[in-house]
Design a protein that fits this description.
327 residues; mainly alpha; 0% strand; globular; disordered N terminus
């Protein structure tokens, strides 16, 4: 996730230390965990209680490296050898998840994930100024992106364990997203370290998690407002950030952001898939429900200009884009 610790658990993060030309090649070739939904990949049902428990343990982990290592190990155990298939873009025959979804949340569940002692969380207005020019201001920009990706790991893990009666396909979809977000964090924090900084060196804010708290008891709202609002805002924000970085001569960061935005299209599309299924099951029109939830829960406005090609690829309709542009 990007509105835009190098870990041993994420070998793809070695690209962050590569030369700019190698990074630009990696932007086209780096495999994403999210190729289709888990239903597309032929996943069976009712087998993932242990996976959900381990996802919850990763969610509660306060050590950054241990959290990322745990997620990547869990993902690799679920689909051994899947990396080669993802790199080739292959997909297995679709096996539908159960027709009736049960979105009830786990009762009396904890609210906040495990986090390291740093960064210090402050009011969004007190977050350091972020710009592409100047070493420290560019590092602040990269730190903000790394913080978003770290929060995105926790958001994906939260979806896995907080809704235990959802089908296994749902859990595996969000495990795939968590694996991607770990990789993204490693790439961005690798750039941050090259600049002489590390995750935690700048203040950050907790805005993303506040939306998770507001939607914790309503999975329909969660799917509408986390993937289709917060992550989708990243689709819009990334191209202007890339333009600023390109103007500053930072080709490496531009290439990393391209990897991220390409993956985020798939993440938003997964959210779109489950949002529409939940809405149809509830007898609600998805597009009308989406706009109603945005207004009712005070979701942030999109950043203009909208990245229309990316949003359309992620499942948005032309009518939805027109509504968002008119807000």
């Amino acid at each position: 996730m990007n509105e835009c610790l190098v870990s041993s658990a994420a070998p793809e993060s070695r690209a962050a230390a590569a030369a700019p030309d190698a990074l630009e090649a990696a932007a086209a070739d780096a495999p994403s965990a999210t190729v289709g939904t888990a239903s597309d990949r032929g996943v069976g049902e009712g087998m993932l209680a242990a996976v959900r428990a381990r996802a919850r343990a990763c969610w509660a982990q306060t050590d950054v490296r241990a959290k990322l290592d745990g997620v990547m190990a869990l993902w690799r155990e679920q689909l051994p050898g899947a990396g080669a298939d993802r790199a080739r873009g292959t997909r297995t025959r679709a096996v539908d998840a159960p027709n009736v979804l049960d979105p009830r949340p786990l009762p009396d569940a904890p609210l906040s994930p495990g986090r390291p002692a740093r960064p210090n969380l402050v009011d969004p207005r007190r977050v350091p100024r972020r710009a592409a020019g100047g070493t420290r201001s560019r590092a602040a920009l990269l730190h903000a992106i790394a913080h978003i990706e770290f929060n995105a790991v926790n958001l994906a893990l939260d979806a896995i364990w907080r809704y235990p009666a959802m089908p296994d396909a749902f859990a595996l979809d969000w495990l795939a997203v968590a694996a991607d977000e770990c990789r993204h964090f490693g790439l961005v924090n690798g750039l941050l370290r090259e600049a002489g900084f590390d995750y935690g060196d700048f203040d950050a804010h907790d805005g993303l998690w506040q939306m998770a708290l507001r939607t914790r008891d309503d999975l329909l709202a969660r799917m509408a407002l986390v993937p289709r609002v917060l992550e989708a805002r990243g689709l819009d924000a990334t191209p202007p950030i890339q333009a600023r970085l390109r103007a500053a001569g930072d080709r490496a960061a531009c290439a990393v952001l391209q990897i991220i935005v390409d993956d985020e299209i798939g993440h938003v599309r997964l959210g779109d898939h489950w949002f529409r299924r939940l809405a149809h099951q509830a007898g609600r029109d998805p597009e009308r429900t989406y706009t109603e939830l945005i207004v009712a829960l005070g979701a942030p406005r999109p950043r203009r200009p909208l990245n229309r090609p990316a949003r359309l690829a992620a499942g948005f309709s032309l009518a939805e884009l027109a509504w968002l542009e008119a807000r």
